[in-house]
Amino acid sequence: MRQGILIALVAVAALTAPLGWYLAARSLRPAAPAEPPASAAELARLQAEVDSLAARVAGLEARLARDGPAPAMRQDQPDPPAATDSLADSFAKVVLIAGRRSVNAGLTHASAEFLEELLGLPREDLTDECQPMTNPKLLELLSLEDVGPIKVHMLRPAIASLRQVFRNVQVYEPALYARIQGSGSLCVRKVRGSHDSASAHAYGLAVDLNIDGVLDTLGDGKTQLGLTLLADFFQKEGWYWGAGFAREDSMHFEVSREKLEQWRRLGQI
Hints:
Strand 2 and strand 3 (151-155) form a beta hairpin. Helix content is 43%, strand content 13%. The chain has a domain at 88-265: 2-Layer Sandwich (Muramoyl-pentapeptide Carboxypeptidase, domain 2). Mean pLDDT is 79; it is low at 1-36, 50-67 and 69-84. It has a 4-stranded antiparallel beta sheet with strand order 4-5-8-7. A two-stranded antiparallel ribbon has the order 1-6. Helix 6 (156-172) packs across helix 8. It is of the alpha+beta class.
């Protein structure tokens, strides 16, 4: 009899063991964190939003009951006028240049001394007038090409970079792209007022631009709105904007010293 009782107890233990393991595991499992109760301020904000929406719906219902549904447009009525692009209408507008001495942050003007050390003079007998380039190294890099909205006479690395600038403008500001005009690129001459320093234009490393053919007034601290937009594209490509010169020249864009040093490392100049 004792043997039968023992067998029965063993059977009960075997049957109830899985249940015990399950309950033990449940008791040891960490409880999920309770959601924090909403604050009184949050509840008040939500209630205010609901009340505001309800008031707007009530107002719309009252207007509909008073005026009735809007009449359908007749087929023979002309389409409503398209909205005008107010920014595009202002591309040629002359505006003050905000913080113009810091518009070239991260870029350095390539001085005449640096350019001469890097490339040599474009010709020995510089004057105040544009003359042909005679430096054989620079002549090998000089090219006349279409870069999109304009044609330029510049060094080939500058042309490739300028083409990329205009490609980006065409994608992101097509209305502005269509109104860009050139005011000159290569001009082998001295820097205005200097004795023998060659300008960036003399090296084929600068271009002058305008909007709608209207030239910027030199040194007045103002520029066309379209040029301020273009300056962002040039800055990203490593070009220095003449608006940052001591004497503002905002239609002037030239390759920065950093970009030239990059080209030197790559063996492009």
